[in-house]
Fold:
Amino acid sequence: MRSTRLMLAALSMLAMSLPARAEPVKIRAAWVAPISNWASILLAKKDLAQHLGKTYILEPVRFTGTPEMITALSVGELEIADLAYSSLGLAIQNAGLEDVRIISDEFQDGAAGYYSGVFSVLKDSPVQKVEDIKGKIVASNAAGSAVDIAMRAMLRKHKLEDKRDYTMIEAPLPAMLAMVKEKKADLVPGVLPFSLSPDFQASTRPLFTQKDVMGPSQMTVWTARKGFIDKNRAALTDFMEDTIRIVRWYLDPKNHDEAVKIAAGLTKLPEDRFAPWLFTKSDYYRDSSLIPNLAALQSSVNVAKEFGFLAKDLDVNRYADLSIVQEAAKRLK
Structure:
């Protein structure tokens, strides 16, 4: 009996001397648009996520827009927010999130040879050039959004100003085709996947593209707060490694058919709505190592400042920490 007690005591002391196994880090990652935002489809390929459930747990969280993300990020209810170039500055300057950091690419508009968002009119519209928008109605999804800023920039280049020369109204992006077909708006933005639907293609023609006015744009980036990055660097690097592995799987042409099936299943839309363009050069550009184009992001942020959506200049390099995604990419070479 005495020997049994001694053995149990020894085992207890040994157990206490071993380091406790850390709980996996919860990573809540935001998304708005299915398929376009990586967080919406990562778990569809969780078989490629080697560290999932071990060092981190992924919880994709859907938001209706970036203002909600900024609030969630500020109160600790979100770890990764996918912010557009238009909302990054708002998070830093308006919400006071000076510790927000750009950690990776999500997608880019107008990269060489890839898709750029369109601003379209009806095919039989009398509007033939940008100047013809004078006196017309223009639809935007929200003041200060990425497409809104691009549209206002092009109109300003042609000496057209909101309220003075045209009327601006707001509508959700999925409703833009209905807005122009019902003649509630004369000019509407078209973004993927809506702009490549057969009805949109048959009913409208592009007046200009986002690339025409902005050049290549870093449309959205993944962001996290510095405190979370510093505290959870190892787990976050594991997560980014898994994410890059999954991203490369989606971007590999040999997986195109399966990727289309995943997209169709998630959105409940027919596969032929995605097959012609998804993850091809007809899609937005997505960096296979998740490295953002900071020069393009800076250019777009400068336009946002020019239009008064930012109170002061913003140096995006000051708010970038690409060390984790760079380390994760090195692991996969």
In short: Residues 25-109+217-331 form a domain with the D-Maltodextrin-Binding Protein; domain 2 fold (CATH 3.40.190.10). The CA atoms of residues 277 and 322 lie 29 Å apart.
